[in-house]
């Protein structure tokens, strides 16, 4: 099958210790790699305020993975999210070529700068 680009965001409950959070993130990273996914980028946003309370919590630990994988992997990953009580929300999206290009520019710090500033630096 053809590999596709995905981005998954999950929010962990904020009551976890730092070690529990690291272990949980590592567990989901392992689900991806064991099933043949290539992790392109990962970003830990840390603890942030939620837009609305979820399970009586106002904050949550955000983690993002951008990866390339077979489409069948998404079901396995989301099943792992559903089985883990530490995950309070998750979302996995397919990235088109424009989103992949945007994420590349964003990781290089080029998003949000004016065109003139970018050309001067080059």
List the helices and strands and how they pair.
Layout: E1 4-12, H1 18-34, E2 38-54, E3 57-69, H2 73-83, E4 87-95, H3 97-107, H4 115-121
Antiparallel strand pairs: 1-3, 1-4, 2-3
Question: Can you offer a commentary on this structure?
Answer:
The chain is of the alpha+beta class. The chain has a single domain, classed as Alpha-Beta Plaits. It is built from 4 helices and 4 strands, in the order E-H-E-E-H-E-H-H. A 4-stranded antiparallel sheet has the order 2-3-1-4. The longest helix is centred in the first third of the chain and has 17 residues. The N and C termini lie far apart (about 40 Å).
- What number of domains? 1
The global form is globular
How many strand segments? 4
Rounded to an integer, what's the Rg over CA atoms?
Answer: 16 Å
Enter the CATH topology name: Alpha-Beta Plaits
Question: What is the ordering of alpha helices and beta strands?
Answer: EHEEHEHH
Task: Tell me the helix content.
Answer: 25-40%
Give a quick precis of the structure.
The chain is of the alpha+beta class and 122 residues long. The chain contains 4 helices and 4 strands.
Provide the descriptors you would attach to this structure in a database record:
122 residues; alpha+beta; Alpha-Beta Plaits; 4-stranded antiparallel sheet; 4 helices; 39% strand; globular
């Amino acid at each position: 099958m053809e590999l596709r680009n995905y981005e998954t965001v999950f929010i962990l409950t904020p009551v976890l210790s730092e070690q529990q959070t690291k272990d949980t993130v590592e567990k989901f990273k392992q689900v991806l790699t064991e099933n043949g996914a290539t992790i392109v980028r990962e970003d830990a946003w840390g603890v942030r305020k939620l837009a609305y309370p979820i399970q009586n919590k106002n904050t949550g630990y955000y983690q993002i993975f951008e990866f390339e994988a077979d489409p069948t992997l998404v079901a396995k990953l989301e099943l792992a999210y559903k089985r883990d009580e530490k995950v309070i929300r998750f979302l996995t999206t397919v990235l088109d070529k424009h989103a992949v290009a945007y994420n590349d520019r964003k990781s290089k710090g080029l998003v949000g700068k004016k065109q003139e500033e970018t050309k001067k630096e080059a």
